[in-house]
Amino acid sequence: MLRDIVVVGAGLAGMRAAETLRQHGYDGTLTVVGDERHAPYHRPPLSKKLLSGQIQRAGIDLALQFDFDARVLRGASARKLDTSARTIDLDDDGTPLSLHYDGLVIATGATPRAWPGGAVPDGVLLLRTVDDCLAIRERLSARPRVVVVGGGFIGAEVAATCRTLGLDVTLIERGNGLLQSALGAEMAECWAKLHTQHGVDLRVGADVQAFVGDRRVEGVTLGDGSQVAADLVIVGLGVTPATDWLEGSGLRVDDGLVCDATGAVDGCDNVVAAGDIARWWHPRYERHLRIEHWDHAGRQGETAARTLLGSAAAYDGLPYFWSDQYDVKLQMLGVPTGYDAFTIVEGRPDDWDFTGAYGREGHTIAVLSTIPGRVQAYRDAIAQAAAFPPRPA
């Protein structure tokens, strides 16, 4: 019988876990630890509608699905985990605090990669939290020349938002294509065209070597020696799982906290993990996956909570995500990692009304579409590893 459960992390995964614990009958002490002072909120709008001002701060609050009684610590950061003593050391707004647990949900998410060159001038910013978003939005009101460093989803979405606001935008990606690590080479070229058609100065295969400006950024210097003027630089180099506080805990960390298919952390009883920090074994793909998507985080949180309560079941849901850029909604179902074939099964990319499929070893493993909701029509084909290419929906 668990009587003292602690959830470390007050994002979507942590809050869904807390709700599920109460929903499934847990009536012991429940403590939720969050390192931000804000009430829990949705992160996807930070690079889109909240950044553009289409919605305001209250519009991203996380609506709880179930009422639950819990002690909630805001502005409290986990510093150390002792799995033998079953204690968590916190920095509670500057005050040391130790919590005991007999059940633990780890959902501390991920942190953005800082600029690797050290100190940066004013005007070089990261985007991860609501405070980051509001700070950037305030600067956008001055109509700056914007440089976005990093061509992943955050970089691409921020660039699209800034162009929608009519700002001059340069998007710099050191790799061979925009969104290539997530979508593959074929779709990378497609999304590069989307941004250039909307007036983004896209630099692919370009390296930022340094920032121009002393106290305030004035531009960036590229690897070829050229410079791009900028009043605001937004760095989006991806994230790393927030596992530093787990050092010395004995838990297995390898690009995230390694878990089985139920969310149970390897080698430790009554400890589960969910969200961006968790690297789960996925039965369908037969590999460990760490997936940084909203839908996945919520479902993992629910599964991890049930596992902690003794009703473990493998989570084999197909990962799903979306990305809004200009008037195009990209949706992906499944995981294209390791694909060896790609084809368009519906429509034409030039019309921005199409569906594409990814295959591996003759089986369908993922589907991408710009047609709203269309990927769901291919759910069975992916789940059953149907022959590639799948039949058009």
Description:
- This protein is an alpha/beta fold.
- The protein has three domains: 4-109 and 242-309, FAD/NAD(P)-binding domain (3-Layer(bba) Sandwich); 113-238, 3-Layer(bba) Sandwich (FAD/NAD(P)-binding domain), CATH 3.50.50; 327-384, Enolase-like, domain 1 (2-Layer Sandwich), CATH 3.30.390.
- Helix content is 19%, strand content 32%.
- It has eight helices and 26 strands.
- It has helices spanning 12-23, 49-52, 130-140, 153-164, 180-183, 185-197, 294-308, 379-383; strands at 4-8, 29-34, 71-74, 76-82, 87-92, 95-100, 103-106, 110-112, 124-126, 146-149, 169-173, 201-204, 208-212, 219-222, 227-229, 232-235, 239-241, 257-258, 271-273, 278-282, 287-289, 320-325, 328-334, 341-348, 353-360, 363-369.
- Helix 1 (12-23) runs parallel beside helix 7 (294-308).
- The longest helix is centred in the last third of the chain and has 15 residues, at 294-308.
- The protein is globular, with a radius of gyration of 22 Å.
- The chain starts with a strand and ends in a 10-residue tail after the last helix.
- Pfam families: Pyr_redox_2, Reductase_C.
- Its cofactor is FAD.
- One of its GO terms (cellular component) is cytoplasm.
- Keywords: FAD, Flavoprotein, Oxidoreductase.
